[in-house]
Write a structure and sequence with these properties.
There is one protein chain. The protein folds into two domains: 30 residues; 139 residues, lipopolysaccharide transport protein A fold. Strands 2-3-6-7-5-4 form a six-stranded antiparallel beta barrel. It has one helix and twelve strands; from the N terminus they run H-E-E-E-E-E-E-E-E-E-E-E-E.
Length: 180
């Protein structure tokens, strides 16, 4: 009987050791997940100051990553408001991304900013928005269309309401648009 107990004990210990080894091996073979922690659909984020809405961001899909970064892979719309709560400009893009570390948003893919009061339109493939300084900027090619001009430039800095703008490198070829 003692031989059977010793025999079973040896078998049980061997099975435990082999099962522990395979679990450790499986854990070592597993890759660390680096995808989003959360995924939300039809997101609307309202940023306000002293009960006055300053910014409204909308996205069809929002991904929250482990490092705090936020991604809008299916498009983003950002509406900016003045101190009276009136909408002043709208930024749209095919994709949006917020760096948590830098607290800067990046919009890319057919980026359009419209000043609603002046009816001026900025177009680019990439644009950054810094909510701390309330500035938009890019070093990429941009076009700005006014009532009378189409301006082409390389790089731009402007307040988020797009009320004024400064070009880094203006391109030749500004022309007047004539209405028929």
């Amino acid at each position: 009987m003692k031989k059977k107990i010793k025999y079973y004990t040896v078998i049980i210990i061997a099975l435990l050791i082999s099962s522990c080894y395979s679990d450790d091996q499986k854990l070592a073979e597993m890759e660390e997940y680096d995808g989003p922690l959360f995924e939300s659909d039809n997101v609307e984020i309202n940023l306000s100051q002293s009960t006055v809405t300053k910014v409204i961001m909308k996205g069809k899909k929002q991904l929250q990553h482990q490092n705090g970064d936020i991604e809008f892979p299916d498009g983003i719309e950002v509406s900016f408001f003045n101190v009276l709560g009136e909408k002043t400009s709208i930024l749209t893009a095919q994709r949006g991304y917020k760096s948590a570390k830098e607290n800067v948003y990046k919009a890319n893919g057919d980026v359009v900013v419209v000043n609603l009061e002046k009816k001026e339109t900025l177009r680019s493939e990439e644009l950054f928005w810094d909510p701390e300084t309330e500035k938009i900027y890019t070093d990429k090619f941009v076009t700005v269309q006014t009532d009378t001009e189409l301006i082409r430039a390389e790089g731009l800095t402007a307040p988020q309401d797009f009320s004024t703008y400064e070009f880094t490198k203006a391109k030749e070829g500004e022309f007047e648009i004539k209405e028929n």
